DNA sequence: CACGTTGGGT
DNA sequence: ACCCAACGTG
């Protein structure tokens, strides 16, 4: 039995706006710790990973793991019936084939209930293909949106290059070539730290915990990218491996047979890999945030909103990286800017890019394999 | 070698927004004095003339005259990658086939570079078909925008009539007729002066100078309009003169073989023709600006921004004029309202209308032949 | 169903 | 001037 009470329905609405064009059906995997969605996009090139930790909810209860197969188009329709500031409660009985949604206006003068049919979806649980990166760029999400939107006017793909100089986005097109160099903010070039997605959307939060996809056994086998058929995106699917002539490469989706064995393991991972280089700057919280620019809180009204350094460009880099990606997908990813004012790009050469928007107690992450043969 | 540094990319962006629907390809003629663009619109009915004086730029250098053949659609794409307040530098090497654009964020933390391919464009240098008019109406550009937009909903064409009473815009349509009378502001009816476009966009500036299109020999041969095929616009092109059955009339494009003979001539014209009527109110700066409404400077930060009398309607008239024009084109012209808060309409009977938006050190001007047979 | 364009509001 | 929403088109 699931019951999850979200303070603001708007969060879920924005999330669906972000991914509804990328994914049409997906399982919301609910368990005691979190609600997780992992799915490949419709063209099987990108991978979307969403997580709402239990702590993201005002109230959360899930007795046993249950997958809720949801048609996102339907869910979107139902969510559009909620106002952004409605309190939204999701309920599903064990083995239920419907999801109940209750919207309560904040002043309680309105209560709406919706029942949405669930469906069975083949749960090809996808192995998230990476755990550690050579570079992380943290930048304002609006800046990222702007850059990929601009460059998408010129060409099909963008070359992202991270160096000590900063991060460069470059695209070549028929009529024009474009290149945007973003210099890191003062003092915001960091190297020697372990770069990996934080376990949770919580900024500077505790690092261990309920990570679902980090698998210690997968720690060093970063690249699952096949390098054939160069110069194209990589298909992260496995389903159509042999019978289609798509130009895309593919990830090897790995059966996630270690799920659940992982809790409280990340913190130890970092400790053991941290030797021999600069330690992270502040206390060991895994986020490596420099102490510069102690911005005045932006008075956004929401105490939970992380509001520091949102305008900074932070570059963490252990190695120069240069990768090429399809702009079409990045433009799609950038729609999640409504969910966070910052975005992180994590990259290693020849490894899928991780684009992560972290919010209060959760995140939305996108994985996109690089085009190869031109990076 | 060209290098032109513009303080605000927004100026160029607005310019391109203005003309991109009218012209698709054009040469930017760069020389020591200015950058000039002259082109006919795609249907060869209207003529666009743009000038940026060297002084319009923060830095300007052009060693030798060079035409830059630009596809405006491409340039528009590239310019959309600039923020309005970016500093924009245009560079082109001699004989280059690319134009380099550099956008610097004001705080310099972002530098974007774009290379746009240039193209060869037949430089049918167009003789701007007039130098002196019987009437000039200066009005707020927003007012002009509103009038032509309103009337365009009623009919295809507008009759513009300038008299001592004011200026009347009238359109007859299937469902309704409309007429807008604009009275000149107090004391803003001027007659007996020479009415011609100023040599430069600079308000109240020196009148002689680097005029490219003024030709003394053409001064009195105003009308080059052929009066056949009545009731239609006039094609300003010469290229398709004989082999097409367009309904439009045509200007005679004249080879501009007297370019440069004109300097410092306008001021003398004014002196000798100035007698016998109200003098212009302020000092003889050629703009005939009344002293009314000594507006408080609008604190726009730019000392060069002309900000007085923007709400006045000024009519200079030596002869009653009544002309009919296609509203479709006027609506298009009026998009340049973003570039200046004032617009000037210069008219003589049976001669193309000149619509001029003057800005700091440049202008954009449109020429449109009247429909004949109904004026 | 998605994208691009146009119009209206802040 | 900028951002958001709605409409129409591909």
Would you mind describing this structure in some detail?
Two copies of one chain form a homodimer. A ten-stranded mixed sheet of chain A has the order 6-2-3-4-21-20-19-10-17-14. In chain A, strands 5-1-7-8-9 form a five-stranded antiparallel sheet, covered by helices on one side. Chain A has 375 residues and is mostly beta strands. The longest helix of chain A is centred in the middle third of the chain and has 12 residues, at 141-152. The radius of gyration of chain A is 20 Å and the shape is elongated. In chain A, 12% of the residues lie in helices and 32% in strands. Chain A has five helices and 21 strands. Chains A and B meet through α3 and β13 of A and α2 and β9 of B. The structure holds a DNA duplex (10 and 10 nucleotides).
Low-confidence stretches of chain A: 201-231, 239-250, 252-307
Helix proportion range of chain A: 10-25%
Q: Characterize the quaternary organization of these chains.
A: homodimer
| Largest Cβ-defined interface | A-B, 17 and 17 residues
The average pLDDT of chain A is 77
Question: In what range is the share of β-strand residues of chain A?
Answer: 25-35%
Strand order of the largest sheet of chain A: 6-2-3-4-21-20-19-10-17-14
Order of helices and strands of chain A: EHEEEEEHEEEEHEEEEEEHEEHEEE
Count, helices of chain A: 5
CA(first)-CA(last) distance of chain A: 48 Å
General shape of chain A: elongated
Biggest sheet overview of chain A: 10 strands, mixed
Cα gyration radius of chain A (Å): 20 Å
Structural class of chain A: mainly beta
Got a strand count of chain A? 21
Function (chains A, B): This protein is an auxiliary protein of DNA polymerase delta and is involved in the control of eukaryotic DNA replication by increasing the polymerase's processivity during elongation of the leading strand.
Biased composition (Acidic residues) (chains A, B): 242-274
Domain Proliferating cell nuclear antigen PCNA C-terminal (chains A, B): 128-185, 304-371
Organism (chains A, B): Gymnopilus junonius
């Amino acid at each position: 039995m699931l019951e999850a009470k979200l303070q603001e329905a708007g969060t879920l609405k924005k999330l669906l706006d972000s991914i509804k064009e990328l994914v049409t059906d997906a399982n919301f995997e609910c368990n005691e710790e979190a609600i997780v969605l992992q799915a490949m996009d419709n063209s099987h090139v990108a991978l979307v990973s969403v997580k709402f930790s239990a702590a993201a909810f005002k109230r959360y209860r899930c007795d046993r793991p249950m997958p809720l197969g949801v048609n996102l188009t339907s869910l979107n329709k139902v969510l559009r019936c909620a106002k952004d500031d409605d309190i939204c409660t999701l309920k599903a009985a064990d083995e239920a084939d419907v999801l109940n949604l209750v919207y309560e206006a904040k002043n309680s003068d309105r209560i709406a209930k919706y029942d949405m049919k669930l469906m069975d979806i083949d749960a090809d649980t996808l192995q998230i293909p990476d755990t550690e990166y050579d570079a992380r760029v943290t930048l304002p999400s609006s800046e990222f949106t702007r850059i990929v939107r601009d460059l998408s006017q010129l060409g099909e793909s963008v070359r992202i290059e991270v160096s000590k100089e900063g991060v460069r986005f470059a695209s070549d097109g028929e009529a024009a070539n474009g290149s945007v160099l973003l210099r890191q903010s003062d003092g915001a070039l960091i190297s020697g730290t372990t770069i990996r997605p934080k376990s949770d959307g919580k900024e500077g939060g505790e690092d261990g915990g309920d990570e679902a996809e980090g698998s210690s056994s997968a720690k060093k086998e970063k690249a699952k990218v096949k390098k054939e058929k160069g110069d194209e995106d990589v298909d992260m699917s496995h389903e159509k491996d042999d019978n289609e002539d798509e130009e895309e490469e593919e990830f090897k989706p790995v059966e996630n047979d270690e799920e659940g064995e992982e809790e409280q393991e990340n913190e130890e991972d970092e400790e053991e890999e941290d030797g021999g280089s600069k330690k992270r700057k502040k206390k060991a919280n895994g986020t490596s945030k420099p102490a510069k620019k102690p911005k005045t809180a932006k008075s956004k009204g929401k105490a939970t909103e992380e509001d520091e350094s949102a305008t900074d460009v932070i570059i963490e880099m252990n190695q120069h990286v240069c990768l090429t990606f399809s702009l079409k997908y990045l433009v799609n990813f950038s729609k999640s800017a409504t969910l966070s004012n910052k975005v992180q790009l994590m990259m290693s050469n020849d490894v899928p890019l991780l684009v992560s928007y972290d919010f209060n107690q959760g995140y939305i992450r996108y994985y996109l394999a690089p085009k190869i043969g031109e990076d």
